[in-house]
């Protein structure tokens, strides 16, 4: 960037002459002025001193224009008016406050006069022209940064003053604001419950009260969840695009880069999204984003942004009530009560800019299978060996298990890995233990298994682990195993699975203006997978659909128990209108119980795209939403990890394969994607018939 000395040298004049041209402080001949102006114009980037001067001139003209505008408003005002002082008239919060205050003033037949207090000139104008007006009923103030002059003015007036937002040092008056700390706590807790631990916060100057409060809310959420507070994740004093870029460059290129960012100020979110777009970062897959303040285009961008929404309308109503109470005190000459502070709650608006992070058995973050690519070199290496594999399934009769096996076989065939045994335990842990001991005698190079349970089969798995066979688990890990006792665990991304089911239930209840929910959860402390799924579903229902009420929660061990549990739930809480069920097997018993009770009005949302569940959905029955696993893709993920493990490559200890949300409108497409075959004729006819009846 050119300096004043560079400009002087380029123009062939002194530094003083350049200064006089820029600041118009002395006569400079037209010839010299032209040379200086041409040197400035030809500079690669405008010199700092020129930019600063132009900004000052622009600010002076803007303030003069605003001053003339306010004089005109006061001159034309009705018999009475309220004064609104703002230090940031064009900021989203301040302009929203102005809109609400103007509406409330109008309902009283009064005007609202807005004065920008960004400069001392405006404060002087305020002192001279408005403060002593007999038509003024009261003053509202939003000041992100307060000055001694402003405090002096507010303390000198005889009319009531209400501060909206930040407090002003030395001014003892009523204050109405949003609960900044609590809002930041909610936003951070949402990210933590979604599986995030490396969470950064971006905000403006910590000198501003609302920023300090939001940082404290962020820190409190981390402390409450025993997550270390890391200084490098707290980035404040951001001012514009360049500072945001520098901050994100540093954060996202770090070894311990955050998986989520909490943007504490609205003006920062613009620059964050510009950065995400320019660097082709996929939100929320690569980075989840939450913003404090619900901006007008939050729902219009892709993905829609999760925000902390301030209730500006209620804030302004409370501020008006405070002013009215103070006016009554003056009119009745009552004793002045103490100044009060009212902090109003925020609403967390969960949208698609945040996603859940799947967590493995030991809390490890889910790896992405797309990062593991098999190469021709690996194929050639495998073909030089004679690797063997065995598979032990909890049950292989379902389409899910058959597709899982097919996905594994297709890759193993290409890589010359021989499958020497496949066994089916028929959900019997004792039988699976015997089968595992038989497989141990075959000494396969790798064992792929879905444990029937985590306790009874544990010893048999440990016996295999003591040998040379490598193991890949699916869905769950036997008791007593540590992360280094096996290669990897692969399953559906349970957090996404639960979120899909919970969101499906919530959206259908909201659409039908229903509110009462029952939860049918799996009762097993040993199965981290269903525990994570159930927790994610409940989180979505509570956070994303605050109008819903969870009336009852029942837990089951065996799927068939849900028949009686459903009857019990509905007898105790007949008002229940929607039920969450962990997966398809218990969901079938829930549907049977509801049918037998004549409660086919109840909405059901569940996991796994099983035939009868899909048929109920197609018929327009009780099932309204399903989260479908991708068994073939899970099989491919297992085989990919197995190949790399056999070649002694490092692989993630946990991989979560993303599920797909299903409703009647995409059922046919998802069935084809999941099962690699067309929708069965019976389901297709039911779907067509239901669609015809809706026309």
From TrEMBL:
What PROSITE patterns would the database entry show?
A: HTH_LACI_1 (PS00356), HTH_LACI_2 (PS50932)
Do you know which SUPFAM superfamilies this protein is assigned to? lambda repressor-like DNA-binding domains, Periplasmic binding protein-like I
CDD domains the record matches: HTH_LacI, PBP1_ABC_sugar_binding-like, PBP1_LacI_sugar_binding-like
Q: Which Gene3D superfamilies match?
A: 3.40.50.2300, lambda repressor-like DNA-binding domains (1.10.260.40)
Record bears the keyword Phosphoprotein = no
Q: Which UniProt keywords apply?
A: DNA-binding, Repressor, Transcription, Transcription regulation
Domain (HTH lacI-type) ranges: 2-41
Q: Name one Pfam family in it.
A: Peripla_BP_4
Q: Which GO terms describe its molecular function?
A: DNA-binding transcription factor activity; transcription cis-regulatory region binding
The protein here is known as: Substrate-binding domain-containing protein
Which top-level group of life is the source organism from?
Bacteria
Give the originating organism. Answer: Blautia wexlerae
């Amino acid at each position: 960037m050119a300096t004043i000395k560079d400009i002087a040298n380029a123009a062939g004049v002194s530094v003083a002459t350049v200064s006089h041209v820029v600041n118009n402080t002395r006569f400079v001949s037209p010839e010299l002025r032209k040379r200086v102006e041409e040197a400035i114009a030809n500079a690669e980037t405008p010199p700092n001193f020129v930019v600063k001067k132009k900004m000052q001139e622009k600010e002076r003209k803007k303030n003069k224009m605003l001053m003339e505008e306010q004089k005109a408003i006061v001159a034309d005002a009705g018999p009475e008016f309220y004064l609104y002082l703002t230090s940031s008239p064009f900021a989203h919060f301040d302009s929203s406050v102005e809109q609400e205050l103007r509406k409330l003033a109008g309902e009283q037949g009064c005007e609202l006069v807005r004065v920008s207090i960004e400069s001392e000139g405006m404060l002087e104008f305020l002192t001279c022209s408005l403060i002593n007006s007999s038509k003024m009923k009261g003053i509202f103030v939003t000041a992100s940064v307060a000055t001694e002059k402003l405090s002096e003015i507010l303390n000198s007036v005889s009319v009531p003053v209400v501060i909206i937002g930040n407090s002003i040092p030395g001014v003892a008056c009523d204050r109405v604001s949003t609960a900044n700390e609590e809002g930041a706590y909610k936003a951070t807790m949402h990210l933590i419950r979604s599986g995030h631990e490396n969470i950064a916060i971006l905000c403006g100057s910590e000198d501003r009260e609302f920023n300090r409060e939001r940082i404290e809310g962020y820190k409190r959420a981390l402390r409450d969840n025993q997550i270390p507070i890391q200084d490098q994740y707290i980035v404040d004093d951001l001012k514009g695009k360049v500072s945001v870029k520098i901050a994100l460059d540093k954060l996202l290129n770090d070894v311990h880069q955050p998986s989520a960012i909490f943007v504490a100020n609205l003006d920062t979110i613009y620059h964050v999204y510009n950065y995400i777009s320019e660097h082709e970062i996929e939100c929320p897959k690569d980075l989840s984003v939450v913003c404090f303040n619900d901006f007008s285009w939050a729902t219009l961008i892709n993905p829609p942004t999760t925000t902390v929404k301030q209730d500006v309308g209620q804030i302004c109503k409370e501020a008006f009530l405070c002013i009215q109470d103070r006016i009554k005190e003056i009119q009745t000459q009552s004793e002045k009560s103490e100044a009060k502070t009212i902090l109003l709650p925020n609403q967390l608006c969960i949208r698609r800019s945040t996603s859940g992070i799947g967590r493995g058995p030991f809390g490890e973050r889910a790896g992405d299978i797309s990062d593991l690519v098999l190469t021709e070199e690996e194929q050639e290496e495998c073909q030089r060996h004679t690797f063997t594999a065995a598979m032990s399934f909890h049950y292989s009769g379902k389409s899910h298990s058959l597709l899982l096996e097919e996905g594994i076989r297709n890759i193993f065939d290409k890589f010359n890995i021989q499958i020497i045994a496949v066994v089916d335990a028929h959900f019997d842990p004792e039988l699976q233990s015997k089968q595992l001991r038989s497989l141990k005698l075959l000494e396969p190079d790798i064992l792929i298994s879905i444990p029937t349970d985590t306790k009874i089969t544990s010893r048999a798995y440990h016996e295999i682990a003591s040998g040379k066979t490598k193991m890949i688990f699916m869905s769950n890990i036997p008791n007593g195993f540590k992360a280094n006792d096996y290669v990897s665990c692969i399953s559906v991304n349970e957090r996404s699975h639960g979120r899909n089911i919970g969101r499906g239930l919530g959206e259908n209840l909201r659409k039908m203006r229903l509110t009462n929910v029952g939860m049918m959860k799996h009762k097993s402390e040993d199965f981290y997978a269903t525990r994570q799924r159930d927790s994610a579903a409940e989180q979505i229902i509570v956070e994303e659909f605050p109008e819903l009420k969870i009336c009852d929660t029942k837990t089951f061990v065996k799927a068939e128990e849900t028949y009686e549990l459903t009857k019990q739930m509905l007898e105790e809480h007949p008002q229940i209108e929607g039920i969450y069920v962990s997966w398809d097997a218990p969901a079938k018993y829930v549907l049977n119980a509801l049918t037998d009770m004549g409660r086919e009005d109840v909405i059901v949302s569940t996991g796994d795209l099983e035939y009868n569940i899909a048929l109920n959905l197609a018929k327009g029955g009780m099932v309204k939403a399903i989260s479908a696993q991708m068994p073939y893709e899970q099989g491919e993920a297992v085989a990919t990890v197995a190949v790399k493990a056999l070649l002694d490559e490092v692989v993630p200890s946990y991989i979560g394969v993303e599920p797909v949300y299903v409703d009647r409108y995409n059922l046919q497409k998802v069935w084809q994607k999941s099962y690699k075959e067309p929708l069965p004729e019976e389901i297709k006819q039911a779907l067509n018939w239901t669609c015809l009846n809706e026309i």
